[in-house]
Amino acid sequence: SLIGRLMFELPEEMGLIAVAVRQTQGKGRGGNVWLSPVGCALSTLHISIPLHSNLGQRIPFIQHLVSLAVVEAVRSIPGYEDIELRVKWPNDIYYGDLMKLGGVLVSSTLIETTFHILIGFGFNVNNSNPTICINDLIAKFNKEEGTELKPLSADCLIARTVTVLERLIEIFQEKGPNGVLPQYYKYWIHSGKQVRLRDEEGPLAWIVGIDDYGYLQVHQEGKGVESVHPDGNSFDMLRNLIVPK
Q1: Where does the chain have alpha helices with state H?
Q2: Which of 38, 102, 190, 213 has the greatest number of beta carbons closer than 10 A?
């Protein structure tokens, strides 16, 4: 891709963002194709992270920071704090725990002592089909609360997401995971939820939080807390399967 080639030709401190109007070759996790019609905010962002930094030692956290940045981009606007936009571990943006509105995909290349990271993120701003979009949520909120919040534009939300992400990265680099986790938990959909481990008949476990490396922590009766990682696409709200590391 163009941005993949450009990534290594730019000065170190310069970030690069590509914004797609319409995407037909989107990549999802596990090789799924992600189609993005008009009405979706879609971008690829390039950042550099030093290997010997807090985030460089915990690269899986980047997808969580980006998901959080998308949610914050909306919910940090005065008046929009109660729009039910949330994060779903590891890399989705949801309306409550009901419907997916967007997602994040991160790929990283380590060159000497610097991670070059490509972040793809997309979320549905104006499209009511096939799912729901952010402006639907705003309209619904206005109707229920008697407010007059304006619809948001894709450009504004992409710009806000990048700005919030830069701030979250700074905080993470300074304070580590604990600098951002309280905010992440405020917006995530998993508090107090149960999941099955390994398969649909597997043991039940409670979701506790995420560990220092961004993996999910679960508590199984009599077993204590263990960390699990996403198994391709199996961690979905319908099947709730996760695989211990």
Answers
A1: 2-6, 61-75, 134-145, 154-175, 181-187
A2: 102
Q: Are residues 149 and 167 in the same domain?
A: yes
Q: 203 and 138 in one domain?
A: no
Query: 180 and 233, same structural domain?
Result: no
**What pLDDT, on the 0 to 100 scale, is given for residue 112?**
93
* pLDDT averaged per 10 residues, the chain (length 245): 51 57 48 56 89 95 96 97 94 90 91 92 83 92 97 92 95 97 95 81 88 90 82 42 45
Q: How far is CA 165 from the centre of its chain?
A: 11
Task: Report the CATH number that the domain containing residue 96 is assigned in CATH.
Answer: 3.30.930.10
Our count of domains for the chain comes to 2
Do 65 and 169 form a contact (C-beta atoms < 8 A)? yes
Which residue is it, tokens 């993949």?
Answer: 4
Position 236 scores a pLDDT of 42
Q: Which two tokens stand for residue 150?
A: 């304006």
Query: Within 102-188, where are the H helices?
Result: 134-145, 154-175, 181-187
- Regarding whether 110 and 73 lie in a shared domain, the answer is yes
pLDDT for residue 34: 44
**Structural domain of 207:** 193-244
Do both 201 and 144 map to the same domain? no
Scored b (16 or more CB within 10 A) or e, 174-212 reads eebbeebbeebeebbbbeeeebebeeeebeebbbbbbbe
